[in-house]
Amino acid sequence: MGRKWNNIKEKKASKDANTSRVYAKFGVEIYVAARQGEPNPESNQALKFVLERAKTYNVPRHIIDRAIEKAKGGSEESYTELRYEGFGPNGSMVIVDALTNNVNRTASDVRAAFGKNGGNMGVSGSVTYMFDATAVIGVEGKTADDVLELLMEADVDVRDIIEEEDSVIVYAEPDQFHAVQEAFKQAGITDFTVAELTMLAQNEITLPEDGLAKFEKMIDVLEDLEDVQQVYHNVDLGE
């Protein structure tokens, strides 16, 4: 698959300067999910999914509780889900998902992040057709054969199962995310190294050294934007 999911997660949350920003983004995502239905993960699948992701990033309990309490309190703060598509150096493709309470600000910030770092915005649909929506779930303490057996016993279909360092990573259709997790939980596995719904590039590209440096800077700028929740791309970063 060309991705090292645990390394990607660790990179996002490794720097102290960025840890609080990662937590803040989760706070917004949890609040939005909690407002979509009951602020209870047992009856709100969107909230349940976000909380599973937050757990893999070690988001502190007080941040989770504060976001849910804010939703329970009837806050009128409203967020809009946005998706931007664009291009970076050497034919690289990028998808940016955002949650914002100021659409004009976010559009301006994303456009500037592309434009000032060798990229440009594309129209809707110009990039997403080269990506597949994918559920990615990782566990430790099992082999790929172990995972295949327990998923078959639970009658859960997946795309692929790959061993990555100390983890086994399962790739599945997005609508199988909860079925895969439930199969693991029935087998006594409740901790996940990765629990994501992502956009996975159908084909990754390798950039020359100068293009890669410029591309990584652009991705860092995009990920640091306050309103940006996720950035997907088709570049092999060699992680």
Automatic annotation (TrEMBL):
Keyword Transcription assigned: yes
Keyword Transcription: yes
Entry GO terms, CC: cytosol
SUPFAM superfamilies listed in its UniProt record: YebC-like (SSF75625)
Domain TACO1/YebC-like second and third span(s) in chain numbering: 79-235
Domain (TACO1/YebC-like N-terminal) ranges: 3-74
GO process terms (BP): regulation of DNA-templated transcription
GO MF entries: DNA binding
Keywords carried by this UniProt record: Cytoplasm, DNA-binding, Transcription, Transcription regulation
Location in or out of the cell: Cytoplasm
Record NCBIfam families: PRK00110.1 (NF001030), PRK12378.1 (NF009044), YebC/PmpR family DNA-binding transcriptional regulator (TIGR01033)
UniProt similarity note: Belongs to the TACO1 family. YeeN subfamily.
Protein name, UniProt field: Probable transcriptional regulatory protein BABA_06941
Organism whose genome encodes this protein: Neobacillus bataviensis LMG 21833
Organism ancestry: Bacteria, Bacillati, Bacillota, Bacilli, Bacillales
